[in-house]
Amino acid sequence: xxxxxxxxxxxxCAASKGLGRGCAExxxxxxxxxxxxxxxxxxxNQTAEEIRQASGxxxxxIACDVTTEEGRRQILEACPEPDxxxxxxxxxxxxxxxxFSLDDWRKAVEGNMLTPIALIRAxxxxxxxxxxxxxxxxxxxxxxxxxxxxxxxxxxxxxxxxAVAIVARKAARNNVTINxxxxxxxxxxxxxxxxxxxxxxxxxxxxxxxxxxAANNPTGRFGTRQEFGAACAFLCSAHAGYITGQNLLLDGGxxxxxx
Length: 259
Known about the structure:
7-stranded parallel β-sheet; globular
């Protein structure tokens, strides 16, 4: 299927690895020119070159911290009129509610709620004026079912979901959509880090803990960045203009509810 977005411009945040990279790769395969950002310059530049070689699209890199005003300024200077925005940032660390300080909460909200809101506010109205726009927020399956020890992420990401629900409906009349992708267990560095922490607590190897968790998923495995990216690319496509304000769960069927 031709997704109808060849020649469009996209900002993809935290795109040097993991789910952000999967989204950038999928969009590039559809002919979308990219501005990608991440904090690690070396990994970011390597990812950009590999995407260029594989797809032939233009890839601009911005090594920055997207959770800061300066980082967002650099990104928007490089791509002031994006057609597509993929919001993504590393989640807060796991822990125990009693040990989280107010500064921990502030940092979580800044990174996983206020940062995407700031980028949406800076881009959505231009998209509406131009008559096309696709915004995808990468949040978490915890928006549907809170995850123990990830209270910081649970709160910030659920706050973002509520914050953009109305503007998603307002923008839709101008062919601009805002949706969220809610990943479950995908094989990323973050998952491996959390698995390692859990394994240490139980006194087993990280590989054993990973195998247990993968086996507990209905699919018997973790998701891949490629299949996550494909879902993102479809939501960004010309065919997805009737999908907005939605939260698409990609978790291999782990969520036990029917709605």
